[in-house]
Amino acid sequence: MQVEPSTRNAYAAKFKSTYGRTYNHGNLQDQVALGGLIIKEMVDQFGGVYNGLLHYNGGPNWYPGCTDSYGRPILADQYANAVYKTYKSYGGKK
User: Fold this and answer.
1) Is the per-residue pLDDT at 94 higher than 80?
2) First vs last Cα of the chain: how many Å apart?
3) Distance from chain centroid for Cα 62
4) pLDDT interval class at 8 (50, 70, 90)
5) Crossing angle for the helix pair 28-46 and 5-19, nearest 10 degrees?
6) Four-residue CA torsion sign, 7, 13, 19, 23
7) Which of 16, 58, 70, 83 has its CA 20 to 30 A from that of 39?
8) Residue 93 has pLDDT above 90, yes or no
């Protein structure tokens, strides 16, 4: 549940309104809660768990072949495939 600093900042108000406190990056529970908040939004926005995973990992503007600010490919599909496989093995339905 590693969240980029800019993403943490973008979700700070939503975290506070959802959980009633300010996000503390040094708190592991807050890190997981923020990750869960973001992934739920991505799943809702992109219409399913797999697509949500793609955009959770690659960002909301991710598309196959895109790169990060250093020119490295963002391999969100590899991440989504691995996590989705685990999700399905636990009985995930979407």
Assistant:
1) no
2) 21
3) 12
4) very high
5) 90
6) positive
7) 70
8) no
Locate 92 and state its tokens: 């995930």
Grouping H, G, I as helix, E, B as strand and the rest as coil, residue 67 is strand
Q: What are the C-alpha distances in Å from 11 to residues 31, 34, 74, 85?
A: 12, 8, 22, 28
Judge contact between 64 and 41, C-beta under 8 A. no
pLDDT digits (tens, 9 = 90+) for 26-74: 999 999 999 999 999 999 999 999 999 999 999 999 999 999 889 999 9
Structure tokens at 53: 């995973």
How many residues can be counted in the chain? Answer: 94
CB within 8 Å of 55: residues ≥ 6 apart: 42, 45, 46, 62, 76
